[in-house]
User: What shape does this take?
Amino acid sequence: MAKYICDVCGWIYDEAEGYPEGNIAPGTTWEAVPADFVCPLCFVGKDQFSLVEE
Assistant: This one.
């Protein structure tokens, strides 16, 4: 499972945790997150996220 970080504000989407508050179940891959997803903190789209290299 990977993590993706918002390039604007630094919020992290963790595939293992999902985003239950946004109805995205744990284990949901970034590719499976809806195309209209926006960052819950700064409201930018998926195109403003980058893979976290661990």
Q: What stands out?
A: The first strand starts at residue 3 and ends at 6. Residues 23 and 43 are 16 Å apart (CA to CA).
